Each structure stands twice: as C-alpha cells, then as structure tokens.
Amino acid sequence: MSTTQKPQRSPTEIEDIILRKIFHVTLTEPAADASSDPRVVYLEMTAAEILSEGKDDLLLSRDLIERVLIDRLSTANNNNNNSPSASAAEPPFPYLVGCYRRAYDESKKIQSMKDRNLRSEMEVVTRDARRLAVSYSRIHLANPDLFGGSDDDNNTRKAKKTRRNASPLLPLIFSEVGSGSLDMFGGSGSSSVQSPPGFLDEFFKDSDFDNLDLILKELYEDLRSSVINVSVLGDFQPPLRALKYLVSLPVGAKSLVSHEWWVPRGAYMNGRAMELTSILGPFFHISALPDNTLFKSQPDVGQQCFSGASERRPADLLSSFSTIKNFMNILYSGLHDVLMILLKSTDTRECVLQFLSEVINANASRAHIQVDPISCASSGMFCNLSAVMLRLCEPFLDPHFTKRDKIDPKYAFSGHRLKLSDLTALHASSEEVSEWIDKDNTAKANDAGNGNESRLLQSKEATSSSSNTSRQNAKSTTKYTFICECFFMTARVLNLGLLKALSDFKHLSQDISRGEDNLATLKAMRDQAPSPQLELDITRMEKELELYSQEKLCHEAQILRDGDFIQRAISFYRLVIVWLVGLVGGFKMPLPSTCLMEFSCMPEHFVEDAMELLIFASRIPRALDGVLLDDFMNFIIMFMASPEYIRNPYLRAKMVEVLNCWMPRSSGSSATSTLFEGHQLSLEYLVRNLLKLYVDIEFTGSHTQFYDKFNIRHNIAELLEYLWQVPSHRNAWRRIAKEEEKGVYLNFLNFLVNDSIFLLDESLNKILEIKQIEAEMSNTAEWEQRPAQERQDRTRLFHSQENIVRIDMKLANEDVTMLAFTSEEITAPFLLPEMVERVANMLNYFLLQLVGPQRKSLSLKDPEKYEFRPRQLLKQIIRIYVNLARGDSENIFPGAISSDGRSYNEQLFDAGADVLRKIGEDGRIIQEFMELGTKAKAAASEAMDAEAALGEIPDEFLDPIQCTLMRDPVILPSSKTTVDRAIIQRHLLSDNHDPFNRAHLTSDMLIPDIELKARIDEFVRSHQSKKRSSGEDSSNKERIQTTSSDMLID
Q: Its Enzyme Commission number (predicted)?
C-alpha cells in the first residue's frame, strides 16, 4: 500500500511564508475565497515592478522585504495598489508593532525546526524583520507624514492642525512599565495595548540621538500633559513610571534635559509659570493640598475624603489619611528616582541642579506672609519637592554626619546658583553681609592675581588687569561638592515648602478657631434678636468653616500624618544645627566672645525653621520617637540668651517654646525628662539663660513688644516653674540669685513684679467691665429696646473682654506663683534698697484688691471660667509677705510696707488674716502675717515721727523724681542732675536711659555726690538732735490716710 508524501518546501519558500506571516503582504494575487486573510495586503504595483525587473518569481525574501515594507506603509494612504484589502490596511505604527510581535512569535516557532542550518537561517530572517519593524517605527514617529499621511482619519488630521495627539508609543511604554495602579476608588489605568517583548528595548537602543530626540521630546510633553491638574487621587502612576523608564535610558535622560521646557525661559517666567510649563512641574504639582481655584486639581481631595468630616466615623478619616499618605509616598519615591537617575550621570547632573535652583529662585516670594498664587508655585509642589530633596540628602544624614565637612559656608554667599545673600542673617546686617562678601571676593581675586604673577612673570599692568578679571570671576570659579549644593538647596526648599505649609496649617487652625468663636457669637445674637441677615451670615460662616476644615485635614493627611516625612526633616535640621555649631567651635560653653562672620551671616531661617519644625513635631503623637534631641538641646541652651550670635529676640524666644513642648508634663513622655535633668549643659546654663532671656525680651524693637513679651514670658515661666521642682536646677537658681543679686537676677525680679502688677490690674478692671455688660444684658426689656447694631457691638465687646481677662489672669497667676515659690528660698534680691519698696507696693496693692472695699464688686458667677481664683491668689500674696519677713534680717521690709501711701492700710492685715482663717490657711502663716502687720504699723509711726522731726526740707536735698529726701545722692554723668541712688537704680532696672535727656545710663556710670551727702547727713543729725532736746512728741499726729474699718469686707 503506497502513501503520497507531502512535498518538502525549499528554504526560499519557507522564508516567503514567514515573511508573509510577519508583514501581512503578498506579491501574488490571493484566492478570492473565505480562507484568505483580510489583513494581508496584495501589493500589485510592487509585484509588477519586480517582474519588470526580470525576476523569475514573486517570493518574499530578505533582499526584497525592505522595499516591500515601504510600499506597504504607503498603501493605506496612496492608491498605488488596487487590492481590496488596501483600503482596510492598518495605519503605519500599529502595523509595525504588529510586525514586530509576529516576528517575535515566528522566532519562537522556529526553535522547533530540526534542521539546524535552516533554523539558523530563519532566525536571521526574523531578526532582520524585527530590526526593520523597529527602524521604520522610529522613522514614522519622527516623520509622521513621510508615508503619505498619519495614523488618523481626515477629521482627526484636521484637528491635529491645532493640537497634536499623544504619541502612539505612549500606551506601549505604559504597558512596559506596568499600569496596574488603582486610584483611591478602585479604578485602573491599565491599557489594552501591550508592547511586544523586546520592542521598546530595541526601539531606544543603538540609534542616532537626533532620530530619537524628537520622539522623546514629544513623549515628555505627552507625559507632562497627562498629569496637569491631576490630584493625588488621580491616575498619576503610569505617567510617573513611564517618566522614570525614559530617563533611565541614556538617550532619554539627554533628551529630557535638552528639552526647551526643562527650564522654561521667558520675560514673564515666574514660579507658577515654571510649575505649569516645565516638564517636571506638573508631576511635582500632584498633591493632596488644595490649590488656588484657577489651578485646582481633580479629583478634589477635600471633597472626596473630608466633606462633613465632623460627622464621619474616625475609622473613615483614618482610612483616608492612610490612603493619601501611601499615594504621596509613591509619588515621592518616583520623583526621587527620576532625579537620582539624572544626578548620577555627569552629563545631566548640572542640568538637574540648574532646574532646582531656577525653581527655588523663581519662588523666593513664597517666604512672604502673603503668597501670590498667580506668580508663585503651589504649596503642593514645594511640599513634594521638600520630600524629594530630603530623600536626596539621606546618604549624608548618617548619625554622626561624617560628611558635613564637605558643606562650605561660603556657598551661601557665592551666588553660585541660589540667591541667599539677601536673606535676613542670624546676626549681621545686610550691609555687614555685603561688606564681608566683597572683602572675601577681593581676597580671592588678589590671591588669584598673585598666582598669575608668579607663574607668568607678567608686567605690573598685566597683573593688575588679571587681578581685576579674577575679582569679577571669583564667584564662578569655586567648585562646590554635590553634598554642599544639596544641603543649601534642601534648606531653602524646606523653608519655602514644608515649613511654609506648616505655617499655613497653623493659620488655618487659628482661622477655624476664630471662625467658630464668631459663629457662636452670631448664634447667640440670633437667639436674642433673630434677623434674616444674621441667618445669611451664619450660613456663610458655616460654609467657610467646612472649606477650612477640609483644607486643614488635607494638610494633616499629606504632612502631619507622614511620620517618615517629619523625621527625615528633623534629621536634616539636626545636621543644620550640628554644622552651625561647628562654625563656632563645637558644643561647648561659654561661646567665643566674637561671633565669626560665617555664622553671623548665615540665613536666619536655618535656625527658625528647625525650631518651628520641632514645635510642630512635639505636638504630633510619637513623631519624636527615636529622634536624637541632645544636639538640639545643646544648641538651644547655647544660643537662646546670646544676642551677639542670634540678634532676633523672637527667634531666641522660639527656642524656649521648643523646650516648653519638651517638658515631661507637656510632652506626656518621660523620655524628654533626661534633657532637663541629666543633661550637662542644661544643669549648668539652662536656668541662667532663661532668666537672661526673660530680661532681654523686654525690648524687642517691635512696635508690639509690650504685648509680645507676655506670651514669651508665659513660656519661660512655665519652664522655670518646672525646673524649680528639679533639685539640681533649684540649686543652680539659688547660686545665680546670689552671684547676680544686683545683675540679671535683679532685672528679672523687677520685670516679674512689673508684669504681675500690670496683668492683675488689667484683669480686675476688665472684670468690672464684664459685670457691667452682664447687667445690661440681664435687663431683658431694656436690652431688647436697644438698636440691633448696638447689641451686636456690646456682645462682641463682651466676648472680647472675656478672652482678655482669661489670658491676663492666667499670666498673672503664673507670675504670682513664681514670686511665691522663689521668695521661699531666695529673699535677698527682694530686700535690696532699689527693690524692696517696689515689692511692698505690689503686695499692698494686691492685698487691697482682694480684701479691701472693692472685693465684692469682683465677685463672679463662674470665676474659674476666667482663671480668677481669689482664695489661691490671696494665699500666695500672704505667703510672699511672710517669706520676705522671714528673710528680713535688717528689718527693712516693714518700713517699705508702711511707706506705701497708695495702698497700705494697717487694717488690711487684720482683714486678710480673717479671710485666711475662713479658707483654712496654716495658723503659723497667719500668725507671722499678723506680726508683720504689727511691725509695719510701728514702722509707720516711726516714719511719721522722723518726718515731723525734719520739718521743712530744702529743695536741694529732695530727689527730683519722687520729691523725697535723698539718702545717697549721685550725679548723672550726662544731664548732671543729682538724684537718689536707690530711686535711679530702680528706674534703670526697666530703662537704661537718663530720665532727663534719654542718654544711655548704667549703674556703674553714677557719680557719688559726696559733698551733698555730707550736708544731708548733717541736716538729718541736727534736726534729730533738736527733736531730742526739745522733747517734742509727734506720736499723736496722723499723717497717713487710712480706710475706716467699716469699708473693709469680711
């Protein structure tokens, strides 16, 4: 039985079959039956040309295929073939990609061929086919009209005249880098187009740069366009991964940094324009933070995640926080990878640094209090840039900062890339900074000139010319390390980005708090006098508060909830602090007497930003876990009381705010207690420097200095009260009080007394005003007859006064508490001649207010609401009396008490003792207080006798300030006026100027008037002797006005 064998095909026939399968073309007319592939294009004209050239057959081969391919690519747009399938032919690019995919598939099938030679020959065929597909793909994308048209129909081609479509290569790149990302709501950006294995690698490999450059630039423009106005909830991940993929290609990196939109130029280019038009700008704009309505991103994060937040479950909010944080970190990582790839190449590093510096310089005005959203980039962009820059810094943020010596302080003034020299410096004025920079540049230029002279032996004139040239180019010749540039750029970006966003968050919180107060006031007014306008105002306020709340939660989600972001920033600022301290010789005290210009000229915001970040981080649970705070503690102790190093008193006050946050009872953590109780510099210098700053803050130079000092001293007082409980710090405090009895401690005590008097006096007066308005409002009939506007004004005043009383009374309580606990162990400074009368007057005034005739008028329905605790206050006042009496070895305190003609009354002591008994004070304290009252009464009697004995006192013996007899006359060097030493020294505690001509004056400048003192002493002796000889009795003469007992309140 015979069988017919299938005829074996020749290699040329196999090659023809493979090429027809790959390229979907034929040179022979296909059969008109259903079995023919409609995708195969019959190139009739091409076949005729080949036959006319004398070729025997129409089999496809490697020699013919490129010619055939060119004709096939022109088929869809030229009518040079009459094949019915020509009109349905695929457009060029999808066709070429399909060819590559089919060539890849055929190469896999070929592997099953048993004939090794045939298999090798066919591998060459498929490899050449892939090469041709890639090559003509490049040619087509670079020249879309080369084959007689583009991939689009007529309507689309008309539209493309005004707008170019996205590159067809983009979906293949998305598929290559993986586009399985999910947005927040489960949507996927996956593409149905898949890139054949190896296609993109071959497309971007071994090709002339000029051919690929145009294609790559269009790809970058498409990627940029795909993320414009996309928020973090949008599908930004495929474009970001595609961007990273392209820059990882050497040709791709080169094309990106040479793009005209890498660093856009133009006369009207500003920060916002750079964000919108640069290639990377829209990627950095992706954020959870709301932007100006003109540049709003979608989806709206606030609306999607935080609308009606007050009514949402906490778990829902936590889920939103976590999702936003995760997506932001994906963005940070992607952008960091892109910049890192470019920075690792020496060919593109300079371009990256140029881009960063241009963005920073164009957005310098973001540091202003009010930021113009039209001219400045968004907060979201700079927060993202902050996160990315911190990641770039990680290699030199090791625990010991071993690479910090590569940071050159001269970079800040070189003008190499960043414009930092115009920023406010730590201590130097702008003139001093300019002078120092000019001097340094001149020195560099002279060094360069001298070097040229020695090497080239030029003439004197030529050397001078060279020196001038070198002086002009001194700025640009210095080479700085990447670490140095990255350090300064990061510090500036954080100032304009992260720290600005934290400031915005703080202001948002304040706006919400004020808005809620205003809303409560409006609702209270509506309850009393409803009106349509009030309803409109309430509705408007509620909408504003909802938007504010959404914006605040967006900030919290992107920044405050990202612990890694915050800790990276803290680590960077720890480097800043350690590096700055290195400029002055390291962590050691005392500081050098002269501040080096490198430190003095450093931008002030370096330190201010570090302090602000620490304050914010201290209020975020667990944000400081594992953070090394010792270096920050050392820095604060070294510089908070050093105005010769850090001029701005508000910046030094901010350091105290940091310490206040770290107090164990404030932080809620015992971890920070070691910073205060086991830290060497803290034990030696903390109390001393806090007392010094308490004094320094009296004069800040600001027009609001009088009110600013109370908030600052509030922080210092809280810290001092805590330190008093620590035995080692209390011992240091006692030592300082003894060493500085007439120095800084006396000044501290004086300002403490001044503040106590002012705050309590203000509070008590405001209480009377509050009670008056309460009485008006309680009379309903009369109140409702008043005009609505008047009622609104009085209601607003009432709430305003309530807030003022609450704050002032809290501060007054703190000051009196500090006077009470310090006077228990430190009494000598209180009893100095220049201080004792001031203290006695204060105590008498407080006692009069608390137990005198005004007591009932200060009664409140809810005194605790206003921090007004009269019983506790009275106890502390009387303890101060008793403490000072115990330490009064020379018995001068009773005389100071009785000499107060404004508030002293002997019966106040009896009234005070009665109240103490009722509220249960220690009997021993009451007894000592009564004994002090008896001594004061006796001193008053003695003073009256002495006054009577002196009779008429000559004017030249009277102090010109208080018109009292001078005991120790001194001459003021400038005005030549003679005053009493104790009185002028009391004046100098608060004001170091001559009161008669405002010339500078200090205690050591006073000139004793020895001759006048001798005459005064003789006058007193002679009149006292006359009194004794005459036996005159003046004990019955009453010269002090007293208050009758019936005026006192039990």
A: 2.3.2.27
